[in-house]
Fold this sequence. Notes:
Layout: H1 2-5, E1 17-23, E2 32-38, E3 45-54, H2 57-63, E4 80-88, E5 100-103, H3 113-116, E6 143-144, E7 150-151, E8 163-167, E9 171-173, H4 180-183, H5 189-200, E10 208-212, H6 216-227, E11 232-236, H7 242-249, E12 253-255, H8 264-272, E13 278-281, H9 286-294, E14 302-305, E15 327-330, H10 338-350, E16 360-365, H11 369-377, E17 383-387
Parallel strand pairs: 10-11, 10-13, 11-12, 13-14, 14-15, 16-17
Antiparallel strand pairs: 1-2, 2-6, 3-4, 3-8, 3-17, 4-5, 5-9, 6-7
Helix pairs in contact: 5-6
Amino acid sequence: MGSLKSHISAETVGKVITCKAAVAYAAEQPLVVEEIRVDPPQRMEVRIRVLFTSICHTDLSAWQGQNEAQRMYPRILGHEASGLVESVGEGVRELEIGDHVVPIFNGECGECDYCRSEKTNLCEKYRVNPFRGTMVHDGKCRFSTKDGKPIYHFLNTSTFSEYTVLDSACLVKIDQNAPLRTMTLLSCGVSTGLGAAWNTADVQSGESVAVFGLGAVGLAVVEGARTRGASRIIGVDINPEKRIKGEAIGITDFINPKDLDVPVHQKIKDMTGGGVDYSFECAGNLEVLREAFSSTHDGWGLTVILGIHPTPRLLPLHPMELFDGRRIVGSVFGDFKGKSQLPQFAHQCVKGEVKLEEFITHEMPFWKINEALQLLIDGKSLRCLLHL
């Protein structure tokens, strides 16, 4: 723990910090690793020293500018990370300098009607909002270029920076003994996928599952279904290389749609005697969503949407299809209430109940972030862990 605390200093508290960050200046242009300025945290905000961060497909889609409304430049992307509290703003009580923390893009204030409800993990004020590029408190940025121009925030977190400022509602304190290296994965991908199996679908022992898209989120669904004792876990992906990683984590069957002469849903129905109990759409593709929905069993099948769908196209379903007993639902952050439930989930990971190492396929220094981005584009990595 002493070596980690050496990453923070009391001398920076209350002052503007100059540090390195990867800044996006335009869609699909290489991120620029340069010096920026990070302001001190304001009321109910926290500034942290980021030690590890990784790239998610949501970062990739934002970098590609898939949604015009999200094109705010310059901007610091990133939302999967872990680090240490460097300083806290006025009113913050639950976090102190030196605490080990994990950022969460879907915040939890703990006080609003949403946070008090057991029916949702959304927060009235700090829920995920890809269209907001400033802090909630005053609508301003805490980042700026060396010549004073503001740099926009991303998903309440902006972790592609040595230091970042977040609302305290978007930070989870975790056990000091939990390895920050792997805890990084709980910020998004693993929590989202595994939580979808545990919380959203509530998969039970002996039930069957089909996972469409075997990226990090899809494989986290596989891990969640495996730990729950699912009898059959079918992985679907057009990348044949995903079969090896899928089998290592827990799929029992692999389907490559390119190898079939029938629709995927028909193949799954033939394999399972009518369809799976649950399907998970992790690709962000409406045609895939249609196949996922059709692959579930008549009468009780449930489809959980986890993929990001940036286009304005609508659901490929006829309303009457829902009268056959099949259901469809979206899941944000795996229906985990971040600040309330993530510490316990982290404890389960530390005990070895969940395989985290399987998701880290590459590691490299932060300044190689564009190489890490390309690995994700090429489908060669699940999570590339960047060391700051």
